[in-house]
Write a structure and sequence with these properties.
Blueprint: E1 8-9, H1 19-29, E2 38-42, E3 50-55, E4 58-64, H2 77-87, E5 97-101, E6 111-115, H3 132-151, H4 168-182, H5 189-197, E7 209-211, E8 220-222, E9 229-232, E10 239-241, H6 243-251, H7 277-288, H8 296-320, H9 328-348
Antiparallel strand pairs: 1-2, 2-3, 3-4, 4-6, 5-6, 7-10, 8-9
Helix pairs in contact: 3-7, 4-8, 5-9, 6-8, 8-9
Length: 351
């Protein structure tokens, strides 16, 4: 069972690369590379367009900023490259970094080249077609890999200044409140209550680690025939922060309805083989040396508040006529559902 994101599609006119200049750059900068090269675009909807490069010396992946005008901090492929370059020597599963090109004249945008992680890219969290024991092993591998990321010595990896070390949730709540206010189209009572309640109840941050920011099943590649993560992908939201932000975001799948994506609500336990939240929490705590984690309901409320801010931005762009996705309208309708779910978890956390 593989996701279409690992498949490639013909490259449209707007996404073409200058093969002569790219070949010359790779010959000069990528160890062992031999041309000529051919390329295709990965089908998935990454915000940083991603290509498969094939040549006599092997297969590579090229990830670039979108062409055209961008916000200064958006699509920071140089940050992603720095992260995987820091993590790769530690043995953490990321693709092998080959080179970063900041010269936009080569293909029209900054890009980096990494190795191709050849394996399974799974999309549906319920893992149809797998036996219960296989599902258990895959989920345990995801949990262990996340724990290993949070155990990683970011100072030794040269990432000591990759983000601000403290007050992670305070900064995030402030950021997403600002984002929501900037794209507000109407008053939503639940969001008003969350904006008042979240900053007052922020849990204490006891650890700082590298935080992936979007850790879920479809953002990793598994070995073809063993339950092992061989590469974690899509580091564009990564920073230094509270590891419980990542762990609670990972656990959001357990409280999300299955819709062919990461949600597994109602699908856990011995019958399916998908571990329960309690089992995942015990495993994560054992591997990270914690004696437990605080009430997850606050973290679930926060994660849904953050998603509310993101989706409200899409809604605002529809109102302004600048949203491009055909699914934008459906996404925007979800803002009420997200806000209500966020407030429900806040109430469960004592609001």
């Amino acid at each position: 069972m593989t996701d279409t994101r690992s498949a490639t599609i013909p490259v449209g006119e707007k996404d073409r690369l200058d093969t002569a200049r790219l070949t010359a750059w790779m010959e000069a900068n990528v160890a062992g590379f031999e041309g000529p090269l051919t390329y295709a675009k990965f089908a998935g909807g990454q915000s940083n367009p991603t290509y498969r490069i094939d040549s006599p010396s092997g297969a590579y992946v090229l990830r670039r900023k979108p062409f055209g005008e961008l916000l200064p901090s958006a699509h920071a492929v140089d940050r992603e490259y720095r992260l995987i370059s820091g993590l790769h020597p530690t043995g953490f599963p990321v693709a092998k970094p080959y080179g970063l090109c900041t010269d936009e004249s080569v293909i029209g945008a900054m890009f980096y080249v990494m190795g191709l992680a050849d394996g399974r890219n799974l999309w549906d969290g319920t893992l149809p077609g797998y036996a219960p024991a296989e599902r258990t092993a895959l989920y345990e591998a995801m949990c262990d890999t996340l724990a290993d990321l949070h155990n990683a010595d970011y100072q030794a990896a040269g990432l000591g200044d990759y983000g601000k070390p403290g007050n992670y949730f305070a900064r995030q709540v402030e950021r997403w409140t600002r984002q929501y206010r900037a794209s507000e189209t109407e008053t939503m009572p639940e969001v008003e209550r969350l904006i008042e309640w979240l900053p007052r109840t922020i849990p204490e941050q006891t650890r700082t680690s590298i935080v992936h920011g979007d850790y879920r099943i479809d953002n990793m590649i598994f070995a073809p025939d063993t339950p092992r993560v061989i590469a974690v992908l899509d580091w564009e939201l990564s920073t230094l922060g509270d590891p419980l932000a990542d762990f609670s975001y990972f656990l959001m799948s357990w409280v999300t309805e299955p819709e062919g994506r990461s949600g597994v609500l109602g699908h856990t336990g011995p019958e399916t083989g998908i571990p329960t939240i309690a089992a995942m929490t015990a495993r994560y705590c054992a591997r990270t040396g914690r004696d437990g984690i605080p009430d997850l309901n606050w973290y679930f409320a926060y994660n849904l508040f953050r998603l509310t801010g993101i989706v409200q931005g899409i809604k605002k762009r529809i109102a302004a006529g600048t949203a491009s996705s055909a699914q934008a309208e459906t996404s925007a309708a979800g803002v009420y559902r997200l806000a209500a779910a966020s407030w429900k978890f806040a109430q469960m956390a004592g609001a």
